[in-house]
Amino acid sequence: MTDTPAETAQPSFRSDVTVELVKHTAGDSDVLWAARVSTAGEQSLEELSKDPERSKGLINYLMRDRHGSPFEHNSMTFFISAPIFVFREFMRHRVGWSYNEESGRYRELQPVFYVPGADRKLVQQGRPGKYVFVDGTAEQQKLVTEAMEVSYRRSYETYQEMLAAGVAREVARAVLPVGLFSSMYATCNARSLMHFLGLRTQHEEASVPSFPQREIEMVGEKMEKHWAQLMPLTYAAFNANGRVAP
Ligand SMILES: Cc1cc2nc3c(=O)[nH]c(=O)nc-3n(C[C@H](O)[C@H](O)[C@H](O)COP(=O)(O)OP(=O)(O)OC[C@H]3O[C@@H](n4cnc5c(N)ncnc54)[C@H](O)[C@@H]3O)c2cc1C
């Protein structure tokens, strides 16, 4: 009996990112409890609803005056699947973050690649710090999609050729591009997430505008949606105070 070689996965192309909230212990009550450092009763959610105006006022005061540490007593773990170039930017955020990413040494990397969607602005105008991005032409859109797909297919074939010849995964992966999707768990707290969102999203309420790459912003926007549901008072205070992390 001969072994049938495992079928090689065919490249697939994505224009979106995945963000799932897999675990959390995070609520506005964690901020209040930490700020008040008082009775055990303060830890309960009931306390929050007893005097909502006082709770809202306290959180807003902490945010406005940048008393940051009460926003650290909570935890959110996200599963994120995004291109490697996004992770490269993401992991620059060192403080209040923990990361674990899939390995290209211990497993064969799957051929899922990023191709910008039709709504992704393709052309950069202006000088550094003053960029604006504008839509590409239909020809540019076609070129980007086709050129990326051809290039991705070629590099994945080369990766497979080397694996088939017995070359180690950690060596063969060198030919794979930064548009390849990777996955990771990222754990943070509200304070570190606010710092991330202040830098990696554009928002009309930001008092200090930032100019992030669109793809990391797509990840940030999805994380923000989850967080807003978990900590609505903190989220409102973040926006009301110019989206600057305390
Ligand atoms: C739009 C944009 C463009 C960028 N372009 C580039 C680029 O071209 N090249 C590049 O290399 N990076 C670039 N970056 C990354 C940027 O320089 C930061 O590394 C990244 O935004 C993480 O920010 P941070 O260091 O504040 O976050 P964290 O690492 O999470 O740190 C949080 C805070 O802790 C404090 N802190 C952390 N470490 C230290 C330390 N060693 N010493 C003193 N204080 C510390 C600081 O107050 C810091 O703000 C860019 C970021 C953005 C948002």
Task: Walk me through this protein's architecture.
By secondary structure, this protein is α+β, with helices and mostly antiparallel strands. It has a domain at 12-115 and 179-240: Gyrase A, domain 2 (2-Layer Sandwich), CATH 3.30.1360. The protein is built from 9 helices and 8 strands. The protein has helices spanning 28-36, 45-50, 52-64, 84-90, 138-164, 169-172, 190-200, 214-230, 232-240; strands spanning 12-14, 18-25, 75-83, 97-101, 112-114, 123-125, 132-134, 181-188. A 4-stranded antiparallel beta sheet has the order 2-3-8-4. Strand 6 and strand 7 (132-134) form a beta hairpin. Helix 3 packs across helix 9 (232-240). The longest helix is centred in the middle third of the chain and has 27 residues, at 138-164. It is globular, with a radius of gyration of 22 Å.
